[in-house]
TrEMBL record, chain A:
<dbReference type="InterPro" id="IPR050584">
    <property type="entry name" value="Cholesterol_7-desaturase"/>
</dbReference>
<dbReference type="Pfam" id="PF19112">
    <property type="entry name" value="VanA_C"/>
</dbReference>
<keyword id="KW-0560">Oxidoreductase</keyword>
<dbReference type="InterPro" id="IPR044043">
    <property type="entry name" value="VanA_C_cat"/>
</dbReference>
<feature type="domain" description="Vanillate O-demethylase oxygenase-like C-terminal catalytic">
    <location>
        <begin position="93"/>
        <end position="268"/>
    </location>
</feature>
<protein>
    <recommendedName>
        <fullName>Vanillate O-demethylase oxygenase-like C-terminal catalytic domain-containing protein</fullName>
    </recommendedName>
</protein>
<dbReference type="GO" id="GO:0016491">
    <property type="term" value="F:oxidoreductase activity"/>
</dbReference>
TrEMBL record, chain B:
<dbReference type="InterPro" id="IPR036282">
    <property type="entry name" value="Glutathione-S-Trfase_C_sf"/>
</dbReference>
<feature type="domain" description="GST N-terminal">
    <location>
        <begin position="2"/>
        <end position="84"/>
    </location>
</feature>
<protein>
    <submittedName>
        <fullName>Glutathione S-transferase</fullName>
        <ecNumber>2.5.1.18</ecNumber>
    </submittedName>
</protein>
<dbReference type="Pfam" id="PF13417">
    <property type="entry name" value="GST_N_3"/>
</dbReference>
<dbReference type="InterPro" id="IPR010987">
    <property type="entry name" value="Glutathione-S-Trfase_C-like"/>
</dbReference>
<dbReference type="Pfam" id="PF13410">
    <property type="entry name" value="GST_C_2"/>
</dbReference>
<dbReference type="InterPro" id="IPR004045">
    <property type="entry name" value="Glutathione_S-Trfase_N"/>
</dbReference>
<dbReference type="InterPro" id="IPR036249">
    <property type="entry name" value="Thioredoxin-like_sf"/>
</dbReference>
<feature type="domain" description="GST C-terminal">
    <location>
        <begin position="91"/>
        <end position="220"/>
    </location>
</feature>
């Protein structure tokens, strides 16, 4: 197990609602931590009582266990006026935190797993798009994606082609931008903040920043939860459980362009927590 | 025309019982999504006014307000199944067996259902006790379904599907969400397959459409 790289990243360990209900004792990178306090007076401590830095951002409490945390990534859309910020709770999944991110980046499974919502047969083909590692920002991006969706969002009234843009801001954080049905000139933002409990178990905090003044909050959350829970059983059954980073370790049938870029990027950084590699 | 309103949560196996039964009977209805998780809206004042026990689902049809899935399934079958197959009340023996299984379905909610909420949403529960009960309930079902197979039968009661099957199906089908795989339960697998093949069957997260099941099985 190599936590070296992972220690200096930030992780969501609570949201405002959880925090308001009292202390949350949880696991992060194989270590027990307890989160408590209020959004402007946060406390994260381990089992021995040592304190860790904490900040409240994007509706969640973030902490880092390392000595030299890298800066928390920026999601500028979070501050745009008019967006509804929708935290969707936390879902536990017995899978590698990296597999949870990789699945989030994969479009090809939409028609089969999210049938009638994010995809449908026979519209199964993913048109060519662009995936790249952006060295200037140290992120993975996938752009120029277009895909037919029967119901792209709660707010969608009919099926149509949806434009997508994906962004991996940290090894355990992925953000997607997709056409916003009621506001075609803008894009909705959906992210997953993955809290790695161990290398093979994570708590996933989906979060959205949407333009939708119409849908009830419960409807928005359930739309996202329905989709995410369709993935959960598939994630829990992936083998090997950890994400293979060496090309010869897994037959790349499923692996699409974004996934290949993501795996390369992880490997080049030495981000091996949750990965299966000969280098670790 | 909408026949009732369902106060619904998309991940709830109990709400799914009603969505499934309505699908099988081809009954139209409206839903009101309730923020069960993370909001715990079902325990709030507005929902308690409708259902003091603070659980989902709640079914409202005119003056009628139902908060137990057993009664909802009975009401749906009695109101919309002209064949009388789904709720065989004219035969005392079959009727009693259906009621027996409806009782069993409540045990499944308390065992597999609770283990699942804990595994997925970290829902507070006495996890050791609940997991033990879940294992016991699934083992018991496997034995009873094996007897049915030896008797040349597919369904829990009589020779056709009843509300007993629909009441028990969701948490058995969803047990892998809590880590209880179906591998060691051949009779359960057969029965799940039979339910999934019914015309009008609807899915929920964790229960994939049958074409995927077929693909997964031919791959493995
Ligand atoms: N009223 C029973 C039980 C329903 C039940 O337990 N529903 C769960 C959701 S699947 C619930 O509302 N739990 C309330 C809670 O745990 O707060 C039934 O309809 O079968
Ligand atoms: Fe998915």
């Amino acid at each position: 197990m190599s936590r070296a790289y992972a220690l200096n990243d930030w992780y969501a360990v609570a949201d405002a609602q959880v925090l308001a209900r009292g202390p949350r004792r949880t696991m992060l990178l194989d270590q027990e931590v307890t989160v408590s306090g209020t959004t402007d007076d946060l406390r994260v401590i381990d089992a021995e009582g040592s304190a860790y830095p904490a900040q409240f951002r994007y509706g969640h409490v973030w902490t880092s266990l390392g000595d030299a945390p890298r800066p928390l990534f920026d999601i500028p859309e979070a501050d745009e006026p008019g967006r509804r910020l929708v935290p969707c709770g936390v879902v536990r999944v017995k899978c590698s935190p990296l597999r949870a991110v990789e699945n989030f980046l994969d479009i090809a499974h939409f028609p089969f797993v999210h049938t009638g919502i994010l995809g449908s047969e026979p519209h199964t083909e993913v048109a060519p798009y662009k995936a790249e590692i952006r060295d200037d920002v140290d992120e993975v991006w996938a752009t120029k994606i277009s895909f037919y969706q029967p119901q792209a969002a709660k707010s969608a009234e009919a099926g149509g082609d949806t434009q997508y843009l994906y962004r991996v801001a940290a090894p355990t954080t992925a953000v997607l931008y997709k056409t916003c049905p009621p506001k075609p000139e803008a894009m909705d933002v959906i992210a997953i903040f993955v809290q790695p409990r161990t290398e093979t178990e994570c708590d996933v905090w989906p979060w959205m920043a949407l333009y939708d003044d119409v849908s009830a909050f419960a409807g928005l959350v359930q739309f996202q939860q329905e989709i995410f829970l369709q993935d959960r059983s598939i994630l829990e059954n992936q083998r090997p459980v950890k994400l293979p980073l060496d090309p010869k370790m897994e037959i790349p049938t499923r692996a699409d362009l974004t996934s290949i870029a993501y795996r390369r990027w992880l490997k080049s950084k030495g981000a091996f927590y949750g990965a299966l590699t000969e280098d670790a | 025309m909408s026949q009732f309103t369902l106060y619904d949560y998309v991940l709830s196996g109990n709400c799914y019982k009603i969505r499934l039964m309505a699908g099988l009977l081809n009954v139209a209805y409206d839903t009101v999504p309730v923020d069960f998780y993370p909001g715990l809206e079902h325990r709030g004042e507005a929902m308690r006014a409708l259902n003091p026990s603070g659980t989902l689902p709640v079914l409202v049809a005119g003056e009628l307000i139902l908060s137990e899935t057993q009664s909802m399934l009975g009401w749906l079958a009695a109101s919309f199944d002209r064949s009388g197959m789904w709720y065989p009340v004219s035969d005392a023996g079959l009727h009693a067996q259906v009621l027996q299984w409806l009782g069993f379905s409540a045990r499944l909610t308390a065992s597999v259902g609770a283990a699942r909420l804990n595994a997925m949403l970290d829902w507070p529960t006495d996890i050791e006790t609940v997991r033990g009960a879940a294992r016991k309930d699934l083992d018991e079902l496997e034995v009873l379904l094996t007897d049915r197979v030896f008797a040349g039968q597919t369904w829990l009661v009589g020779d056709g599907p009843t509300i007993a099957d629909i009441a028990c199906f969701p948490y058995v089908a969803l047990s892998p969400d809590a880590g209880f795989e179906h591998d060691g339960y051949p009779a359960i697998r057969n029965w799940l397959y039979a339910v999934r093949s019914l015309p009008g069957f609807v899915t929920m997260p964790g229960i994939h459409p049958l074409h995927e099941l077929r693909e997964a099985e031919s791959d493995g």
